[in-house]
Amino acid sequence: MFDLPSDVVAGETTTDEGDSICTPEHCFHAFDALYCALSGRDPIPPAFVDKAYPLFVTWNSRSSRPGRPPRLRGCIGNFDPLPLRDGIAEYALISAFKDSRFKRIEEDELPSLECSVSLLTHFEDASSYLDWTIGKHGIYISFPDPALYPTSRSSSNTPSPFSSSSFLPRFTSRRNLTATYLPDVIPEQGWDKIEAVESAMRKAGWSGLITEDTRRSIKLRRYQSMKCIVGWDDFIKWRKAKGDDEI
To answer: How far apart are CA 231 and CA 220, in angstroms?
Structure first.
């Protein structure tokens, strides 16, 4: 898993930029990287400003059946601020080819794909594992591997507003488990806060019993995301507008 730097700060959000921080041009650049990698064509130089942001690139496969939601095909990102031109292109390919949950994307899949780029902003340390808002915040959790410390004397399963407790053991191991969910994932799954945190703990690799003590051991950072989505047809129009008449 990835490590989230304690001092990571995303690119500044200004009133003038608003939701335009992430634009279709970013998604077209990601699509172009994948299309050119699969087809051998030359990429089109991006026109957007090369600022630095933590970012994720997500590939979904759209269903041919009306009403069915897109199916995830790959999603990988980085919490270090990256220059957007290189970062988007790099993670477009990493998420398409190296997401261990899926087979690599092949050229014949391109017409069914949609691409979303998420630029991450407003990182904050939460006061507890409950100190965040569903639909607004993504969560990044880090916690000591429960297998490496003894059971706490506190046995309450009641959610606590505190992220730590005097009853919790002192952790001596440096092994932490980590996981993240982007802001849109949690409402899509219909989870409440505890369900989301526990799912993230499973995603991080913990398969044992989850108690209030293990939840309280979590260090949670919340963040927000500016997101844009485009489909293959949009990308084709964009590439033709840039002078490619052969696509």
So the answer is: 33
CA distance 110 to 236: 11
* Rounded alpha-carbon distances, angstroms, from residue 61 to 106, 115, 232: 12, 9, 10
Q: Return the structure tokens found at 25.
A: 């041009």
Write the DSSP assignment of 6-54 as a string of letters.
TT--PPPP-TTTGGGGS-HHHHHHHHHHHHHHHH-PPPPPP-S---EEE
pLDDT in tens, 39-78: 999 999 999 999 999 999 999 999 888 888 899 999 999 9
What's the predicted TM-score (pTM) here?
A: 0.80
Residue 198: CB atoms within 10 A of its CB come to: 16
> Are 95 and 193 in contact, with CB atoms under 8 Å apart?
no
Residue with tokens 């087809």, as numbered in its chain? 39
Paired residues of 139 in beta bridges: 181, 222
CA distance linking residue 34 with residue 200, whole number of Å: 29
